[in-house]
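User: Structure tokens for this complex, please. No commentary.
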Amino acid sequence: MLTKTPHLFDDATRVTAGDSCWQGRTSEDYWAFVGPFGGATAATILRALLDHPQRAGDPLALTVNYCAPIAEGDFDLDVRLVKANRSSQHWCVELTQAGADVATLATAVFAERRPSWSHQQAEFPGAKPFEQILPYPKVAAPWVKQYDFRFVDGSPEFGGATRDAPASAFSKLWIGDRVPRNIDFLSLMSMSDAFFGRIFHARRELVPFGTVSLTTYFHADAQDLAAEATTRVLAVADAKIFHKSYGDQNGELWSPNGRLLATTTQIAYFKA
Amino acid sequence: MLTKTPHLFDDATRVTAGDSCWQGRTSEDYWAFVGPFGGATAATILRALLDHPQRAGDPLALTVNYCAPIAEGDFDLDVRLVKANRSSQHWCVELTQAGADVATLATAVFAERRPSWSHQQAEFPGAKPFEQILPYPKVAAPWVKQYDFRFVDGSPEFGGATRDAPASAFSKLWIGDRVPRNIDFLSLMSMSDAFFGRIFHARRELVPFGTVSLTTYFHADAQDLAAEATTRVLAVADAKIFHKSYGDQNGELWSPNGRLLATTTQIAYFKA
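Assistant:
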């Protein structure tokens, strides 16, 4: 037993079942600068799908488009099973508040994953053990305090001296919940948005930043995740380009045993 | 002038404007084994958005979920502007045939890209010039014949001797239209699905395969593309994992001058 009371993360991503319309609420614990942490929003959407009575199989892909800021308070999730096949499902979710315009638009694919030929071509990044690395100090944003970030490479140097040449956007770090919680689909979804903006690393400073679209692929099913039984992932993230106010990010989330659990990519706005 | 008559690709991805419902039609020229080439479907969806009277800005991100096979013939595109902000738009498109279930579900983000700090961190892969490499011989699928693939690395060896160890899933190749056509958003979208299945490379054989979800980010706007004025891209593609019937792919599309035009990722079903 890791915790006796519900974990903060589970509180933050709680949903109330409806027919096609589910309800959720933003969490102060996972608040970012101008709205809820995008990873928590994505995980809340995923939870509504996982809890849905028509759901079959495990999450395979989730794309979340952040269309507009979400205000503190309640929101509705319009959850629609767009197409179901023999072994896969396609979903569409729209998040709205008080009947206003869509604030978040998501599509998801669920699949019953059958045994197959298996090959992990990507190499486990490897790292010093979690226990041997100091946690990243708590920072202002509430959501950051909910995670235990332990940087192996590419530790943030925000507010450092501005140099002429851009710094590397690569980071390698352990990510766990501040209060340990077993890694499941929900935490993988949230952690795939828990990297600091790559632009902060490249510029060595905080600038206005917002994720526009986030896609995560799950490479482990529920059985695989249960077998890993871990409370942390070894994560790497990098960027390829920053151009005309938008930059990309790609990342990998690994189990400590060296299993690739999820890959993720996003495109984000920045002002610099 | 590259061609005087419309390019095959433009015929294949033609759309007829409607109010919210647009029409398209599958193309024999871009047919795959059991349905239209996914890249052509994605490009057709993108064309409906580009041609839409409410469209503002350039494509930034497009995610296409292939929900069910598309039959030969006409299809409808239900095009919906979900949310428009000052400088970005969020779209949702559903492809149906004869009023049946959704066959393809897509979301797109358009943005007016403003000048900013710019940094291309990814390194140009580089390659021998297009002219010095032999074209990949025409193969059975019609869509493959519409492209001029020139492999630099990871040339397909399908039907080769099965070895114990999986082969690399990495490929580097030039991609152009068989009949040269200037690279635009539509061709980038289509080409981002024009890699052969990574599983074919890893296994050195053709197996049942289908893209499930495809996401492409555009890192150049219309002005940047016009400045490149090229008819081909240098493309790289790789995979990280094949597991329980699904495998990923990530790719980059570069201009010959070394500008990163688009990045793409997909998750695909395979049977092996």
